[in-house]
Amino acid sequence: MTKRALLLLITWSSLLCADNFVLYSGGAVSGKLLTIKDNEAVYRKDRTPAEPKIIFEKRSLVNEISRLEIKLDKRPELKKQPVTALLVNGDRLGGEIIELNGSTFIMKTPFGEVTLVTNTLLALVFAENNAPLPVDKNYTTLILKNGDELKCKLKEIKDGKVLVSSDLGELELSFDRINMLVLVAAGKLDFRGKDFISVLELINGDRYSGRYLSFSGTRFRLEPMWALKARQAVYEFDQAVVDNLTFKNSGVVFLSDLEPETVKETPYFDFHLRWKKDTNIKGQPLRLNSTEYKKGISCQSRTEFTYKLDSEYSVFKSACGIENSAVTGSAGLKITADGKILFENKLKKGEAPLALDLEVKSVKELKILVDFGEAGDSGAFVSLGNPMLVKVTEGKEEAVKISEGVFRIGQVLIDKNKREVSFPAKIEARAGLIEYLAVHTEGKTYEAELSTEARPVHLQVALIMLGLQYGQNINFRNEALEPKGGKVEIFVEDGEKRLEMKDVIYDRVRKTGLEGGEFIFSGSKFAAGYFLAEQEGSLISLFKDPGAVIVYNNPTASDATGYSAYDAASRNLPAAAKPVTVIIKPK
Description:
It is elongated and about 95 Å long. 4% of the residues lie in helices and 48% in strands. The chain has an 8-stranded mixed barrel with strand order 37-40-39-49-50-46-42-52. Strands 1-2-17-16-20-5 form a 6-stranded antiparallel beta barrel. It contains 4 helices and 52 strands.
């Protein structure tokens, strides 16, 4: 297995207290977070049993990371705060209320004082309470510790007291008598804008949304987007109190972070539990068999969700099954995209969760129906664990015009006048066996003649811009199919001379330079929601690599992958320190 694949797909149990990065592909990688700066996360990779000699720093763009889970041996005990403010975007702020008067709410948290617009508040919780919030669009609801509920209008909160008006007249109640205050103003503001790019969840359950600023050493810095005061908005959180950091502008969106367009709950009898986000339907940790999920949706049959996707996503992934807490055990699950059925199955208690991996590219509306089970079974609780929507990335790369007919995308140059694409590279191997002509610097450099900072996705887009049509590669190694696509010629320039492939690569079997085969623009592909070439760093392969952008098809090779024994032709290559340029032209 390659370094890249190991990094992206495996979480090593041997790394004690390693932070866990959940990537947009749905995979994970363990490492020690060093810093996050300029939209890039840097973390240290340690030795693994499979690659004991490897120890290096790894970099990932923030938009490749959906969730960063902080793993530490020692955690401080956070003092319990007297009041928890629940905001309409799902944030939870523990602290002390200084004042709520008219349109302004001021709260002192352990991480600074914050001033909010009152209608960003969903509720104030004065005591431990896992019960669902009462919903009444007409009244603010005051719930006392003795169980009494009072429909009222909030007038002021100050000096440890709540002043409300109701049918009973004006009432002034001290905090110690109140369980919860649910405000009618909830839901007036939309917190789903692009500026909400990160969420910090603390070990005590507090949740802060805002614009991510930095992480350096041991402290996270966040600018809360809901703050009123212009210069109030920088919070600092010690790493030891942070449970996880979610990047809302990443390549993946959890379904539980989206508001459904509609939810239709149909009780079989009069009693029906309301659906929940990120917990099971009883407000407890969400579990399917032995696996606990921090993100998810739980509901009772029959419930139908409708989500507006607006063609922004390519893949929907989720675990699904009957929740552990369910008493009875059957339900139907149907998922449709713009009216077309993507998935339909029966779920039964005790069965292993099903893994969904559904294509939703160009889908405008997604519907999820949890239906009654066998013989009208209405008691099953169905959960979706880590339901993720992977954003569309293919075709969204933009090229910059340099001059007439000349464009640049990343480090790849497209010259339509010369009918060629080129990118800078450096020599990795001047001798010895190789499997790739060119890979990304984070790819399989130990198997390649050249390495480059040019991204595979940029190369693929550049070749399409040149007018080449990518075809189809094999789906897995050893598959007995021929790759299809536009044929290309490849050259290597060192500033003085242009070398053909027969001068750059030596075929040990045929005892000659590379010849007899053809380079094919087969194009890489999306699999399980991610672009294979980006994951593996494969640009130009000397065999039928399913993930590479360009592959060499050798019809005389005995290996089913089309691979022969190739060497770097050292006598023809420039010095290792000398930069070179890879040039690709249609054949």
